[in-house]
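User: Could you check the structure of this?
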Amino acid sequence: MLPHLKKLFPLAAFFLFGGISLVLWQNQNNHQRELAFRYTETSAEQIQIRIQGLMNARIASLRLLAQRWVERTPPDFRRQRFLRFAEAIYTHYPGFTAINWVDPAGVIRWVFPPTGEKSAKDRSIHDHRDSHYGKAFEKAGQDHEYAVTPCTEIHQGGGVGFDIFWPLIYAGKVQGYLDGVFQVRLIVDTCLAKKIFEDYWIRLYENGRLIYLNGTEGRDRTEETGFHVHREIRFSGKTWQLELDPKTTIFKGTGLQNYLPLSFGLAVSAVLSFLLHLLLRRMDMYRESRDHAIHEVRERKRAEAELLERENRLKALLAELADKNAELETFVYTVSHDLKTPIVTIEGFIGAMREDFRDLIPEEGERYLAYISDAALKMESLINDLLELSRIGRLTENKSNFSFAGIVKEVLKELEPQIRARGIEVQIREDLPACLWREKATGAGHGESVVQRGQIYRKREFIPAHRGGS
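Assistant: Sure, the predicted structure tokens are below.
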């Protein structure tokens, strides 16, 4: 059970380290999201304050211009004076698209800056395609208070903007109107720093209608970060809804780059799990090697014990064999001594016969006695060979070359009576090869065996002669 559980350790370690990485990544994301949200809220409040402050200042400048316009006595309503005042306001209070002077009938007579004169001069306010535009102008004349048009398409500068009509009252009558033309994009660009546009998507709505968006409406939606900050921008006669959405430079949201830390954490978890797997594998290999070494040591000790036991048994067998050899040698010596006793007796009697009956023994009898004496000597030689045979393994053999033809001749001499009695003719080749024996007697024994087998085969197969060397 335990080895199977050990295989799950790397997987469990991966899930543990991966879970820790996931929790840390989630906490980091939440922290970054909270920071981005707070930063976005702060930026939204700054945008709100700056736009409200800019517009309030521009409305105050129009009020100042209106007061300066009618306060002079006698009144001076010349075009040059208007252009001088308008230029001062336009220069010192950036944000205006244009400043116009409109007669009581609603026709634009004077325009500053002069670059917009062509598109606006002598144009009637009532000719604007948005009816609310003309209604705001009429309201200013009726209430003797400034009025603000809804945001719509403007002729001067293009784009979305609005006008502020400020009636010029002199001697209780409307002498004309100051027309402050504002383009929404110019207002935003004037009061906000470039960094704001790089970090945020800015939307401005008026009565649910989109009047401003930095960038394009069809921007890549993958840059959405998942949260927005809303604020209301209020200034005289206007209420705008601000929607601020941070770009990926502030908060990456769920984009691919945001998953890189998590991927790195999971990769580190996988590497650590793999290293743990290798460590466990190495420990198992070390344990197996140790067990194998212990097993080999035990087997070696067991083999050494068996070898020692067999060596002791071999020593006992060798000792027993040595005793047996000693007994055999004693037995052979005794036997050979006992066998030599009759041979000595035969030799003694042959010698006595030659000594006592020398004159009575014929030549043929002397030859027979010689045969008997040679046979006895041969028997004695065989007994000595038997004694030496019992010593095999304890004597060093020194072999020599002997003439096989000479050995055969000696054998034929010993067996001459038998050969003659059977009528065997023996021919010996002189070119017989030399033979390697320890002593000559061994070769003589082999030669005698060959001649005796030849006699037997002659008797069975009626072979008339035996040819030596065949």
